[in-house]
Amino acid sequence: MLQLLQEISSRASGWVELRYHTRRSKRISVRNGKLEESSTLHLTGVGVRALVDGVFGFASTTDLSEKGVTRAVNEAQSAARASAVAKRERVASLPRVKLATGEFSVETNDPLDRHSLSEKLELVMRIDERVRSGAKRIVSSSVAYSELQDEKVIVTTDGAAVHIIDAKPDFRVLAVAQQDGDRAMGMDSAGVSGGYSDLFAARTPDEMADRAVRLALDQLGADYAAGEVATVVLDPGLVGVLSHEAIGHTVEADLVLGGAITSGKIGTQVASKLVTLCDSGPSALIPHAAGELLVDDEGVKTGRTVIIDHGVLRSYLHNRESAAHFGVEPTGNARAFEYSDEPIIRMRNTYIEPGTSSVEEIIASVKHGYYLQGLGGGGQADSNAEFMFGVREAHEIVDGKVGKMVRGVTISGNAFEVLKSVDAVADDFTWGLGAGHCGKGQLAKVDAGGPHLRCIVTIGGRQE
User: Fold this and answer.
1) How far apart are CA 274 and CA 190, in angstroms?
2) Which one of 128, 299, 331, 415 is CB 3.0 to 4.6 Å from 30, fit for a cystine?
3) Which residue range(s) make up the domain with 184?
4) Total domains in the fold of the chain
5) Hey, is 51 helix, strand or coil?
6) Residue 285 burial (CB < 10 Å; 0-12/13-18/19+)?
């Protein structure tokens, strides 16, 4: 396929990008002991972008013959010409950047295909049974396994020629407990780039089931939190949610051009000097981040982009088009979920870098506050960095000690104001947002994380 795309690109007039993509996906889900889904899907096609008179055109095809792909090139060029009539802003030229060549693949010693569909189905069924038998008060269970296995070939007329192999499995467990008409939910999940054993390297499936059950049961007897502005210690999972949802989207260059709060603020102090926030293509600090992207879908070799450096906003996230507009180098953030999707600016693995304090020291110095762990019950954020998230597990901190669990906790505020309040950053690090997808017109596998950190947020709760 690489040779075919190179031959077609060599005959193309002007700038052309050819992206072959074949994907094999599996999903198994069980609810309350009953199989809801066991599916295997396979898609293959080529997406084509052409730049004509400063305007992009896009087309895709499932016809992988030379004639079929050439036809798609012509269609993309025609689409660009048609769009040029109404397009005000045009790309004068694409910025120069080191484009990828050669082979790239996610590292693993345990490929997903070594494990059969029946083995994965048996695991999901067994873990669902473990959840349901965890306690008499467990009244509902749900377990799901899914995987994406991708192969891509990307060729551009200005030098990209790359073959990419990637695999991303994830696993989710949910338990619902009930007592005297009161219900509570517990959950756990994991998602990685890599193989089967990589998915369960941090926690085994049994440990995930037991954790979900414990959370559901513990919350049944917990008091509701009272609303207040409070000092909190966020775990890496919530640090990741804050980094991705509340900060990361505001620095995607297309949203910046649309009027996000970060517009015009490069070089401005937007966070505590203790905060350095990055977005990386390769998995930084520890391996197998779920958003691992070694080469983006424009053929740009990825690296680490420092967004906030010791509190100062230093960079947005760019594709080649936005980089041309801002006069900077692309950051390797162009991503397309399937061959029929046009690449758009997306995050990869977004995180806050570790600090120098221990978690124990950070908690010990809190007289009154909360220790908050994980996203629960969803949430929302906007381009002004205003956010509200549900918390999966919350405990009071009293006189430097983690105390009783409280339930129904939400956190809210302006993400940049929250980052300005950070006064301690721990020396640990974990990826915590690997399961599921990020949505922005099209899906993307991402990850986010960081260390524990201490800050001030608005706690939302209710009286019993």
Assistant:
1) 28
2) 128
3) 2-220
4) 2
5) strand
6) middle
Tens digits of per-residue pLDDT, 318-371? 999 999 999 999 999 999 999 999 999 999 999 999 999 999 999 999 999 999
Say how far apart CA 121 and CA 117 lie, in whole Å.
Answer: 6
Counting Cβ atoms within 10 Å, is residue 463 exposed (0-12), middle (13-18) or buried (19+)?
Answer: exposed
- Say whether both 211 and 228 belong to one domain: no
Q: Which residues of the chain have pLDDT under 50?
A: 463-464
Residues 227, 189 within the same domain: no
For every residue of 325-373, DSSP letters joined together read HHTS---S-EE-SSTTSPPEE---EEEEPP-SB-HHHHHHT-SEEEEEE
**pTM of this prediction exceeds 0.90:** yes
Q: Are the beta carbons of 171 and 58 closer than 8 angstroms?
A: no
Residue at a domain's end among 220, 249, 279: 220
DSSP for 164-227, please give it: EEEEEEEEEEEEEEEETTEEEEEEEEEE-SS-HHHHTSSS-HHHHHHHHHHHHHHHHTPEEPPP
Give CA angle at 255 (57, 90), nearest 5°: 35
Q: What six digits make up the tokens of 1?
A: 């396929």
Domain edge (last residue) among 220, 243, 266: 220
Q: How far is CA 178 from CA 129, 184, 213, 458, in A?
A: 17, 7, 11, 29
Contact criterion met (CB below 8 Å) for 322 and 253? yes
Nearest alpha-carbon partner for 319 in 256, 246, 252: 252
Residue 48 falls in which region: left (phi positive, over 0), alpha (psi -120 to 50) or beta: beta
Hey, what are 22's tokens? 């074949």
Separation of alpha carbons 287 and 182, rounded Å:
40
d(CA 102, CA 314): 31
- What pLDDT is attached to residue 464? 46
Question: How many H-runs (helices) and E-runs (strands) does the chain carry?
Answer: 10, 25
Residue 333: Cβ-neighbour burial (10 angstroms; 0-12, 13-18, 19+): buried
**Pairing relationship of beta strands 55-61 and 34-52 according to DSSP bridges:** antiparallel
Task: State whether 137 and 263 are in the same domain.
Answer: no
Backbone angles phi, psi at 453, to 5 degrees: -145, 160
CA 439, CA 42: separation in Å to the nearest integer? 21
